[in-house]
Amino acid sequence: MTRLIVVSGRSGSGKSAALGSLEDAGYTCVDNLPVAVLIETVNILSARTAHPQIAVGIDARSQARDIAALSGELTKLKDAGVECRVIWLDASLDSLMARFHATRRRHPLLGDSGSLEQALTSESNLLEPIHQLADRHLDTTQLSVHELRSTILSQADPHYAPPRPAIHLMSFGFKHGAPSGVDYLVDARFLPNPYWQAELRMQTGRDKAVQDFLKAQPDSQDYLDDLEHLLRRWAPKISQSGRPSVTLAVGCTGGQHRSVFLVETLRDRLARDFEISYRHRELET
User: Comparing C-alpha atoms, which of 232, 236, 237, 266 is closest to residue 249?
Assistant: First the structure.
């Protein structure tokens, strides 16, 4: 079934952020879509995928006759089997004015109104048909962008479940340089080095013999426990702040044994509760 989300509200209430969040969640988003082509647009997009999810932004940039026609167009779509939902965003007048002053954007009705406050009042009158039509109302006055993201997704889909936090694990060798752009960089060079065991030198942390050697070291298990606790405790918090993933880079001297073992083990420990990706930098060359 096709799902259509109409996002509307006064300028500065967070519509662009809401559409961006829906787009990140897999919706095909169109901002400032003329109501006259709404049905045609939905039909075209619905033909492209088995389970289409579409979000459109309709606001004060539309003409009054288009806004008045929205109710009838949505009724036709519902009769055709499209699941439709209208989400209205708004915020306090003081908050909206502060956001405009902070971004220095021009209100679409400012030219006709003369003042920002009057423009926002005129906008309320213009959009009142959509406000009355909306089945979801969201006050964004106290919401951060990241809070708006999760809230808009739950408003759009009653069955929405937040995705599991994503963690990227990387092993590397300090002698080849530490990676940049990671959230956590930890050092495994204090652990006993399998390199000094002749029979293990040419193997890597992926090999059972190396893993057995390191598993037998008490510090290896304690370090793994601490790193696992760190990620379980803080990766969800970091993800909630809007970061797409949390990266932990584990380094040893050459990036062949200890760091690889730690990444492999952490991957297995965390895979059930997190979206895990990983890379062994020095094994790629």
Answer: 266
As a whole number of angstroms, the distance between CA 199 and CA 9 comes to 68
Distance (Å, whole) CA 143 – CA 238? 17
First CA to last CA distance, the chain: 47
Contact, 246 vs 239, CB < 8 A? yes
pLDDT tens per residue across span 162-206: 778 899 999 999 999 999 999 999 999 999 999 999 999 999 999
The residue assigned the tokens 């057995």 is 212
DSSP-assigned beta bridge partners for residue 278? 169
Write the CA distances from 119 to 108, 116, 125, 157, 228, integer angstroms. 8, 5, 10, 32, 53
Looking at the predicted structure, is the pLDDT value of residue 45 above 70? yes
> Which positions ≥6 away from 163 have C-beta within 8 Å?
275
Nearest Cα neighbor of 178 from 243, 253, 230 is 253
72-91 confidence digits (pLDDT tens): 999 999 999 999 999 999 98
- Helix H, strand E, coil C: the string for the chain is CCEEEEEEECCCCCHHHHHHHHHHCCCEEEECCCHHHHHHHHHHHHCCCCCCEEEEECCCCCCHHHHHHHHHHHHHHHHCCCEEEEEEEECCHHHHHHHHHHHCCCCCCHHHHCCHHHHHHHHHHHCHHHHHHCCEEEECCCCCHHHHHHHHHHHHCCCCCCCCCEEEEEEEEHHHCCCCCCCEEEECCCCCCHHHCCCCCCCCCCCHHHHHHHHCCHHHHHHHHHHHHHHHHHHHHHHHCCCCCEEEEEEECCCCCHHHHHHHHHHHHHCCCCEEEEEEHHHCC
User: For the chain, what is the radius of gyration of the CA atoms?
Assistant: 26
